[in-house]
Design a protein that fits this description.
The chain has helices spanning 11-20, 34-46, 61-72, 79-87, 129-133, 186-195, 202-215, 231-248, 255-263, 266-276, and strands spanning 103-106, 123-126, 160-165, 172-177. By secondary structure, the chain is mainly alpha-helical. The protein folds into 2 domains: 11-133, no CATH class; 157-276, no CATH class. The strands form 2 sheets. It has a two-stranded antiparallel ribbon. 38% of the residues are buried. The protein binds zinc ion. Residues 93, 95-96, 98, 126-127, 129 line the site of zinc ion.
Length: 288
């Protein structure tokens, strides 16, 4: 999960061009929709895409089918969709924090909100978590909803950490929320955490990293190539590592930062420091 910059495409102009493109099968049937679509785009922006506040203007099944078709294979009028797909593949997934994207996810699902099928501000880069999320959007309790990577500033805060217990070669691994119950967006964050993050392979990823760290610490954290004398020094090195990862991946909730956050837990720090400072230890040898 990551807060990302809003795409700067002019969606209203693009839709107008699309409606006038007489080489497309949708011509001229999108023309009567132009005003409604443009007003809907403006209203979406005015309420930051909030699912309970967006006016979901109904459109005909025919128009919806045309828009879905244009989303699937974008004509040149909608080349921003192709560009968004291609330009974000190497980036952290804004929805779940995995280390790549590669596809686009409709924040407001296109079946329920067909009018926003080709709206760039409703299209969020995502990884395979997109297919696990399906149409999940709102929870049963007040405030519960999936977070919107273009609008929810809380995605810029550190929200998630790994948790390692029963420390050893194969510890118990889980992910936990780092915010308190009094956080103003707790319900939304917690819902996003349960319905998006926890359904990914994040725990397996973290377990694999732990296994690499255990066998050869420098493989995961370069600075752990040497023996380290005190717990304070281990902590300082790991904080530096986490800051560097946050910076590199432009956010604090990518899976690599989440991993290092878990190492900074006091019990894990003590465990690591005991091993890294052991007299006679061969530098960068296994932690067992
Ligand atoms: Zn993802």
């Amino acid at each position: 999960m990551n807060k990302v910059q809003l795409p700067a495409y002019d969606d209203s102009a693009a839709f107008d061009k699309l409606s006038k493109n007489n080489r497309l099968g949708s011509y001229p049937q999108l023309q009567p929709l132009v005003g409604t679509v443009q007003a809907s785009y403006d209203q979406y922006m005015a309420v930051n895409g909030a699912p309970t506040l967006v006016h979901n203007q109904p459109i005909s099944a025919t128009a919806a089918a045309f828009l879905k078709g244009h989303y699937a294979s974008p004509p040149t009028d909608l080349e921003h969709i192709t560009k968004m797909r291609e330009s974000t593949e190497h980036l952290v997934c804004p929805m779940c924090g995995s280390m790549h994207s590669g596809t686009l996810d409709h924040y407001l699902p296109k079946n329920g909100f067909p009018i926003f099928s080709v709206f760039s501000k409703n299209l969020v880069p995502a990884c395979k978590c997109n297919s696990k999320r399906k149409e999940t959007l709102l929870g049963a309790n007040p405030g519960e909803r999936v977070l919107h990577p273009y609008f929810d500033d809380c995605l810029g805060e550190r929200l998630v950490s790994a948790r390692f217990e029963d420390l050893g070669e194969v510890p118990r691994v889980s992910v936990v929320l780092m915010i308190s119950n009094t956080h103003p967006q707790h319900s939304a964050i917690n819902f996003h955490f349960r319905s998006i993050i926890q359904r990914t392979a994040v725990v397996r990823y973290l377990a694999d990293r732990w296994s690499s760290l255990f066998r050869k610490p420098s493989r995961v954290v370069r600075a752990l190539a040497e023996n380290i004398a005190t717990q304070d020094q281990v902590q300082a090195l790991l904080e530096e590592e986490r800051d560097a990862l946050d910076d590199l991946h432009k956010g604090k909730n990518n899976w690599n930062s989440i991993f290092v956050s878990g190492l900074l837990d006091p019990i894990v720090l003590t465990w690591l420091a005991e091993r890294l400072s052991m007299p006679g230890r061969v530098p960068d040898s296994p932690l067992g």
